Fold this sequence. Notes:
Blueprint: E1 4-10, E2 13-20, E3 23-30, E4 34-40, E5 53-54, E6 67-69, E7 76-79, E8 82-89, E9 98-100, E10 102-104, E11 110-111, E12 114-121, E13 128-136, H1 139-142, E14 149-154, E15 162-168, E16 176-183, E17 192-198, E18 203-207, E19 213-217, E20 233-241, H2 243-246, E21 258-270
Parallel strand pairs: 6-9
Antiparallel strand pairs: 1-2, 2-3, 4-21, 5-10, 7-8, 8-9, 8-21, 10-20, 11-20, 12-17, 12-21, 13-14, 13-20, 14-15, 15-16, 17-18, 18-19
Amino acid sequence: MSKKIILLASVIGLIAFESCSNKKKIVEISSPKYELVWADEFEGNNVNLDNWTFEIWDAGKVNNEWQKYVEDTDNYKVQNGILAITATKTGENKKGGYTSTRLSSLNKKEFKYGRIEFRAKMPNGKGTWPALWMLGSNRKEVGWPKCGEIDIMEYVGYQPNTIHTNIHTQNDYGVTNNKVAINTKTAEEEFHIYGIIWTAEAISFYIDSPHNIKNTYAPIEKNADNWAYSQPFYLIMNFAVGGAWGGVQGVDETIWPQTMEVDYVRVYQLK
Length: 271
């Protein structure tokens, strides 16, 4: 297959990619400010345990979700440079009748500030609730939401072609402090880049290009209750079923299995 160079000119630099088949690979970084410091391109045939931990728990542990999180090859696969996270129906009971995968980089890959990107394609159907997001590394010490939460991408299947970006803080306990719904017509059919630019002053969310800012969180007067974002955060990729948000309009029990595909995760930071 012929190769082509795709140039992405952004507000923070120029990045060159080489495309071979459907996989984009970094071949050069040319930026006066930012540089790639870490990436998982999902090469090989398994999850890289230097980067990720499988989080295991029963249905209903959080958000009234229906799925169990397990480490089972029915629920994840790394193949052809893609991580597939699949939610499957395993039984008749609503809670516990589904299994899925949740991966966390806690204690393995944690970052403070930078430009953080996931390139991913969403599942579809009522009851699907995948997310690509971050939590403060001090969560076990201070609890949620005091640790802070950055939802780079959340998707609920009863709102097709819509992506959500959210911030959670202690300021509005248990409530989304800053949220924007973004029309993304091909979220289920095509891969899109979901990213943030995170500095000491603000967190800006974009789709496909840093030029395409969709949401910015930047409280003028920062304090412990509205700004937990001056510390390292870790990455999470998961696919929930039903629950307090994903199941608001019910769960279509005829659509399973459903899969979220992730092409890569990349982190750039200031030189």
